[in-house]
Each structure stands twice: as C-alpha cells, then as structure tokens.
Amino acid sequence: MTRSSSTFVLVPGAWLGGWSWQPVARRLRAAGRQAVTLTLPGLADGDSPSGLHLSDAVAHVVNEIEKRGLEQVTLVAHSWGGYVVTGAAHELAGRVAKVIYYNAFVPERGVPLVDENEDYSVMINAAIAASLDGSVAVVPEQVPLFLPDLSADAQRLFFELLVPQPGAYFLEAIDVPAVTTAGIPAAYVASEDDRALGRPGAEFAARLGLTPVIIPGGHNSLLTHPDEVTRALLAA
Hints:
By secondary structure, the chain is of the alpha/beta class. It is built from 10 helices and 8 strands.
C-alpha cells in the first residue's frame, strides 16, 4: 500500500453537501491524487430530511465506496461527519487505509452528538421540536461561528447554501469503538479558530491518542483556507 495510490473520500459535516469539499478536492486532484466528494442522504438540494437515520448516512458512504470499487481509501470527515466516517470505516476495514478527522467529532461508542455539548443539546432539541419534519436548521446568527474569517456578505451567501439537517443524525449514536481499535491509522486536523465544534479539537484527537495538526481558519476552513487544508490532508 502506498500513500500515492490512496483515494480521498471526503465526507461533509452537518447542513453541507459535497460542494463544500470541492475546493479541496480540486487541489488534491491537481496534486495527482484521486478525490471523491459525497453528499449524504437528506442533504442535497431538494431532499427531504424526514425519516432518515444515522445508519442511512453510514450505509451511503459504504455503498458509494463499494459501488465505485475503491480500495486503499483515505476517509476524511468534517465536523458531524466524524460519526458517519467512524461507522463506515468499521464496515470497510479492508478498503480503508486511513481516517482523517478534520474539525470533526470523534464519537464515543453509544454517545450521540446531542450529548457532547449541553448548549448544543438545548439548541438541537428545541429546533427538532419546532420543526414539522424533525430537522435542525441553522439560523443566520449562528453563521459567524462557522466562518469567522469571512465578510458579512460572504456569510450570507454561505447561509443560503445550507440545508436542514435530519434531526436523527444528531440524536442517534453509533455502536462501534474508535477506528484505531480496528487497526485503522488515524490523524486529526484542527483549525486554530474553530468556534463551532462541540469540544476543542484537541479533546477529540486525544480520544485517538493523537495530537492535532493545527491549521489556520475557522470551522469551515475547507472553504476559506483550502490550500492549508489540502496540505494537511496530504501530509497526514
């Protein structure tokens, strides 16, 4: 297995589609690497968030990788995508060369995202209760937490691109341990001004026995600092 033969499969965080990874994916391809961006069920424009479960998102990643016949995959998770990638990596252990968590949750077995942060728990449960379809939507006041280094106009554009997150994606847990227990190498990349992650990236990295690689930008630096994100993924 060689690093250069690995295909990067890029999994987005909450409220985002594969479009959020496109600046990084283009740079990975320019560096001679294969890159695949995925949009998870319920998160494409026009999708309904109703009736979806975390297992559906995990199955989508597994099915896409198997359908494409990908081997020696580097799975990359952004934010909430850490839950999806952790679950998928265990089902794809023979195909996964490495897992990279980027500003991502490293889930503990049986613990859903809603239980990782008390303030987030209040916000998520309130949003689900107020929603007709059990989804969680971002409100404009929250956008600066994701992109603190962008202008107000750019933040408004970003807000227009977001779609409601299926609520069960936040309420459900995965029943698998850390990927490292399956012998899958892992790395952690953290942005220095991440204001949106439920805990400091260093805490999540510590769950894997890792020290994070620090890069510039905020939680969504994949859009604002794609060069730095790309370099960190290639070096991981």
